[in-house]
From TrEMBL:
Function field: Cell wall formation. Adds enolpyruvyl to UDP-N-acetylglucosamine.
Modified residues (2-(S-cysteinyl)pyruvic acid O-phosphothioketal): C117
Record-given protein name: UDP-N-acetylglucosamine 1-carboxyvinyltransferase
GO molecular function terms attached to this record: UDP-N-acetylglucosamine 1-carboxyvinyltransferase activity
A GO cellular component annotation in the UniProt record: cytoplasm
The organism of origin for this protein: Alteribacter keqinensis
Pathway involvement of the protein, from the record: Cell wall biogenesis; peptidoglycan biosynthesis
E.C. no: 2.5.1.7
CDD domains from the UniProt entry: UdpNAET
Upper classification of the organism: Bacteria, Bacillati, Bacillota, Bacilli, Bacillales
Amino acid sequence: MEKIIVRGGRQLSGTVRIEGAKNAVLPVIAASILASKGKSKIYDVPALADVYTINEVLRNLNIDVNYENGAIDVDATKALKTEAPFEYVRKMRASFLVMGPLLARVGHARIALPGGCAIGSRPIDQHLKGFEAMGAKVEIGNGFIEAKVEDKLVGNKIYLDFPSVGATENIMMAASMAEGTTIIENAAEEPEIVCLATYLNSMGAKVRGAGTGTIRIEGVKELTGAEHTIIPDRIEAGTFMVAAAISKGNVLLENVEPEHLRPLISKLNEMGVIIIEESDGIRVIGPEKLKSVDLKTMPHPGFPTDMQAQMMALLLRAEGTSVITETVFENRFMHVEEFRRMNGNIKIEGRAAIVSGPNELQGAEVSATDLRAGAALVVAGLVADGYTRVTELKHIDRGYVDFAGKLKALGADVERIYEAQENELENLEAPAPLKMDPNFA
Ligand SMILES: CC(=O)N[C@H]1[C@@H](OP(=O)(O)OP(=O)(O)OC[C@H]2O[C@@H](n3ccc(=O)[nH]c3=O)[C@H](O)[C@@H]2O)O[C@H](CO)[C@@H](O)[C@@H]1O
Ligand SMILES: C=C(OP(=O)(O)O)C(=O)O
């Protein structure tokens, strides 16, 4: 078993380059299924476990995918298979994003039913409501969801009960090749939706209004492979901003889009963190004392749920009481129990976590209960007394490229090790980066 071991007390300084966004690249790779002509080339692809998983899903559909030097070539021009087994959907829910493109291109998809996970039950009813409104027949049985279209999907007006990111993306992809026009109302407005729409449009689709609550898609007969660059990862960026702030550090983040970070920047400013937009990135300077704030997670442009755990780490160090309300996922406080092991004073009342600070955090053995929780525990370890040992790194590897290595390069006292090496802690070598063959999950 691997662990990240961090010893608190170092201020972070230097420069970190932010990767392409996980949550943008996954739907873009899924959308490349739509190209019956030409190849796609996708740039700034992060070397994440989730990327290997979606690549493998596509290969199983008889699509050629080659990942080299941070770019992916996709050739989806051969006859497609239409089944995504549980093995992939279990690893990553975003595998379900292949349903929209498959329905549009070949009128059939059979995808294992995504299960619940550590952050909530995560139903897919809004995706299915969209496909059914466009004429698909959906059946659920034996752990699979099977959808079929008799002839072609037909455009329709679809009102989402909640601005679901995944449902907006899946419906947008399906509608790109449907007959007639589809209008998605109460659509998600996240920057990753805009990234997907830009790619679809460069393939020949007609998507308008992405980034607003109403998206209008005029279906076209055929889409062609295209080149596309993935937007910077606002959540990886946010995690390093919090790491800089908590350690009273001074860190420059390169390859960031400040507009995508507004909700986070404004909260960090309220807490007393200094953030300077420079020509080559964003500089974050942590103050001597952090102020408490309240925050509520919301769909974009509200405060992102994917930054909630990291902000909890930071608020543990702030003076006074902060209330964090989680409105997006019903069970995204699993990290609270882990923070308590580190001496964090947090109470849960329904959907709110009440954080009383400042806390003198103590190193402890903790478990990454999900991807952002894992990153947040490592970040808390940066200022804890003694050693914090974080296990269940498979979650962190889904969304962060060499997280420990990047923190170490900024001056953190951190190692990624195999359990057997733990006794040699004093003489540790640099942690090996994620060991994976980029072309196999
Ligand atoms: C790969 C990816 O992009 N993942 C992100 C995406 O997940 P994902 O696309 O799964 O998140 P959604 O926006 O769909 O989910 C938000 C809420 O809507 C509910 N819901 C969703 C779909 C549905 O059909 N029915 C339903 O009830 C979910 O249970 C959840 O409570 O957006 C989330 C919210 O910003 C982020 O935390 C994830 O990091
Ligand atoms: C919840 C997340 O991702 P996913 O939707 O892929 O589980 C996340 O990125 O924090």
